[in-house]
Structures are given as C-alpha cells and as structure tokens.
C-alpha cells in the first residue's frame, strides 16, 4: 500500500511541476497586470500544493501513512499523461508568446485535466484520509479552473462580466 501511495504522490508531484511551469511561463508572457496577478496567485498555490505533497511523500517513505496532518487546508500515469499532453500540445505557442486569452484556454484545459486526474484516483482510493486528500486536490483544481474561466470571461466581455458579477441589470438597478 505504501509503495502505491508513494507512486501516486510522485505522479501528483510531476503534475504540480508541470502546472507551476505553465503558470511561470504564462505570467512572464502575459502583458496584462490582471492576468499576471492571477497567474502569480495560481503559481503560488501550485507551489504550496507541491510542498504539501512532497512532505506527504516523505512521510510514506519513513513508514508513516495517511493521517489528518496530511490533508490540505482550504494517480495513474495515464491521468498524468493527459495533463502532460495538454501542456505539450501548447508548448510551442507558449514559447512564441500566445495572447492572454489563448493562455487562459490552455490553463482552463490543464486544470480540467488535473481535476479529472484526482477524481480518477478518488474512485480507487479506500483509505478515508487518502480520499479526503484527493477530494481537496480535486477541489483546488476545480477552483483554479473557475478562476481562469472567470478571467477569460472578463477578457472576452468586460461589460458582461461586471454586469453578471456585480448583479447589475440593464435598468441600472
């Protein structure tokens, strides 16, 4: 069981590494301060996830197992390959400097694949702490997906975005 958990956590670390690299490149290429700030925020969250997962992996290597201390606050290689495929498919565009909306599309696709990765692992998980860990990771990826989707909407239709988010009607009420 511990070897399976270590292997899964290594796959999670690889996934987090790819997401961090994407957000670093997207932040550097983004000409807009709003986008830069969002990419920096998501990068920081991915770094926190990676540090947490690395600490958890070390616990397993020393013979400890799942425990409440391992849960986040607030894998199969096939699933990790799906996320890697998204990143690789768009790598050239990132190097050339894709526009902010295109970068958001890549991020949205990557976060959806990441959430699916954790949800796939969750289907197989038996330990209650492992299940909570995977639920938290999937929840974090879905949150990132929502943030990027909101930012994409903001870029594509700023007026519509503010009308929806500020709950304003066309009558000014």
Automatic annotation (TrEMBL):
Q: InterPro entries, alphabetically?
A: Ferritin-like, Ferritin-like_SF, Rr_diiron-bd_dom
Q: Which organism is it from?
A: Dissulfurirhabdus thermomarina
What is the protein's name according to its record?
Answer: Ferritin family protein
Q: Quote the Gene3D superfamilies the UniProt record gives.
A: 1.20.1260.10
A GO molecular-function descriptor = metal ion binding
Domain of life of the native organism: Bacteria
Location of the Rubrerythrin diiron-binding domain: 13-150
